[in-house]
Amino acid sequence: MKHYRISVPAMIALLALLLTAQNWAQSTPKTPSRPHQVKHVREVELQGRSVTKTFSVKKGENLVVNVTGDVTTTPWDKNEVLVTATGIDEDELQDVLLTQTDGTVSVDFQSGGNSNSDLAFTISIPKQFNVSIKTSGGGIVCNGPMVGNVSGKTAGGDVSVGEVTGKVEMKTAGGEISVGNVTGDIDLITSGGDVSVGNVAGDLKVRTSGGEISVNNVSKSATVSTNGGDISFNDVAGDLKATTSGGNITVASVGGICKLATSGGDVQLKNAKKSAHVTTSGGDLKLTGIAASVSAVTSGGDVYVEMLGRGDEDSKLVSSGGKITLLISENAKVTIDAAINTGGWGRSKERYKIISDFKSESETEDVSEIRGTFELNGGGTRIKLRTVNSDIAIKKLIK
Predict the structure, then answer these.
(1) Which of 25, 203, 306, 340 pairs with 74 at a CA distance of 20 to 30 A?
(2) Phi-psi region of 175 (alpha: psi -120 to 50; beta: other; left: phi over 0)
């Protein structure tokens, strides 16, 4: 075996070469490997805990949002969509997916247990654009005016929609809903909040499990219900069906068939061009300007009705313990059948009375009932008046 000797100068040179190579390797930055998802956000601008990206779009295209956090859209005059996401943890920035495919801009982000309440997505869109939003934990705000269909769903936040030329469909599991003027149909659902709506050129549907419902004008039909709040409308051109389990109902005018029901409040209807069906389990009924037949029933309050005409069907005004007052035109051809149930107390006529501006055809009394019949202009459509231990008043309507 041969042995090689290395001189001292050569050894020093070799060591110097090795040290130089090591220093160069340590000073050269390594390119870290990135997850496959990063390709979606590689072109966006990352600033701290925010993400921003701009898309070139055409009018009438679509925005689809599926995120965790608050979402706000605002129309502008540019043919661009500008997305800004804020409040995101740095280790989740790569989970923000901003893409554009076939006329649709998509915004996707689901926080992996992020408890930050500042998560927010602010999006500018063309005024003519369709919007679909879903958030698992935040509010939805769609500012107007805009042209397009708007839909949204949130698991726990308020919803606000501005002026829209198009349809609106919104649902929240725990918040209030506010919608401005809309030219199309509206469908709103909330599990625990108030609902307010401006003018609606289409049909309206509203359901809330625990709040008030307030609506201005509806050009077509409306169907609304709440389990615990008041309901108020200005004008409904078509049919109206409104139900509440614990509040008052106030309606200014209905052009179609009107059905109002409450389990614990008063009802006021100022004008109805077609038939009106009104019930309450514990309040007063006041109906004026009724042009057709009417059914007004209360289990514990007064009934006041002004009838402009006789209607094509029979009418009834019933109370289980309140005064009934009917005002009717002296030109109407109707037969009024009025009765007071006195419960058999005797001498009831001295305590309860049927008072009328019209001459009675017959009037009877026994130990349990006071009854009177009134035929106006030869009689016609039947109007039944019934109460218990209270008075009945029949008066001429002067308009």
Answers:
(1) 203
(2) beta
Report residue 111: phi and psi, to 5°.
Answer: -70, 135
Q: What percentage of the chain has pLDDT greater than the value 70?
A: 84
- pLDDT given at position 37: 33
- Note the pTM of the prediction, 2 decimals: 0.85
Tokens for 152? 């949204």
CA dist., res. 70 & res. 2, Å (int)? 79
Nearest to 54, CA basis, from 9, 114, 98: 98
- For residue 277, give both structure tokens: 């069906």
Q: Specify which residues 205 forms β-bridges with.
A: 187, 223
Structure tokens at 389: 């231990």
Burial class, 342, CB count within 10 angstroms (exposed 0-12 / middle 13-18 / buried 19+): buried
pLDDT digits (tens, 9 = 90+) for 180-229: 999 999 999 999 899 999 999 999 999 999 899 999 999 999 999 999 89
Q: C-alpha dihedral over 328, 332, 337, 339, to 10 degrees?
A: 10
CB 321 within 8 A of CB 338: no
